[in-house]
Q: What sequence folds into this?
């Protein structure tokens, strides 16, 4: 499983766009990139998943450059309720993900 | 609501005791995963079951064990409890055994005194 590196924490203000970058230099050909969101004392929640280029859903966008060695989760116009920990995971959907690991994640704090 | 349920929500017990945590996966999901999250720590993968069979093991202590029943619900048994076992225990489920996307339950908060 590819190791990921994310910033430990980020601060933002309401209404701003937040971009959280994840580095995964050893990403394998079959690996997908998945982001989860976790609020305090709750289980992580799936946000978005992608393989290359750009993926967008009602919550976020995921930008993946051509070399796929990094990815950026973009949260448009954040609100106070977006304060959470965001985890980036990289893994192969085609094989057993018994090594799936959540790292420390990025703790996003949105201020008024 | 992810569709994954866990009971109990909270559990307080003493050192040396044994507890059982229960998880019901989303309807139709065959895989169940267990995670431990200590205070201000990341999620530690413990074990995965798929359709009743153990599929993968993570950092699970020998004092801990799990099983998945024919109706696909799962139980995590924690024995000889220590203070350091106090944590949030999450269960997640996915349709198959190879899904990166997992759906997490609300967790069981265990406090060992």
A:
């Amino acid at each position: 499983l590819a190791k990921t590196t994310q910033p430990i924490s980020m601060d933002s203000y309401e209404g701003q766009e937040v971009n959280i970058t994840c580095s995964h230099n050893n990403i394998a050909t079959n690996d997908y990139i998945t982001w989860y969101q976790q609020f305090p004392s709750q289980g992580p929640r799936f946000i978005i998943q992608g393989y290359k280029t750009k993926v967008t859903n009602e919550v976020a966008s995921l930008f993946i450059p051509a070399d796929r060695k990094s990815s950026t989760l973009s949260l448009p116009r954040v609100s106070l309720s977006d304060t959470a920990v965001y985890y980036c995971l990289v893994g192969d959907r085609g094989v057993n993900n018994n090594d799936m690991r959540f790292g420390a994640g990025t703790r996003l704090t949105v201020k008024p | 609501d992810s569709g994954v349920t866990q009971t109990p929500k909270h559990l307080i017990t003493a050192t040396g005791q044994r507890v059982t945590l229960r998880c019901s996966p989303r309807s139709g999901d065959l895989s169940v995963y267990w995670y431990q999250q200590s205070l201000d720590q990341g999620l530690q993968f413990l074990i995965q079951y798929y359709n009743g069979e153990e599929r993968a093991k993570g950092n699970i202590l020998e004092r801990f064990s799990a099983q998945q029943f024919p109706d696909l619900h799962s139980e995590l048994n924690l024995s000889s409890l220590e203070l350091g076992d106090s944590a949030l225990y999450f269960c997640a489920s996915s349709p198959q055994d190879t899904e990166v996307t997992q759906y997490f339950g609300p967790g069981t908060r265990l406090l060992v005194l």
Notes: Chain A touches chain B through 26 residues (CB under 8 Å). The beta strands of chain A are 9-13, 18-23, 31-38, 45-50, 53-56, 61-64, 70-75, 84-92, 106-111.
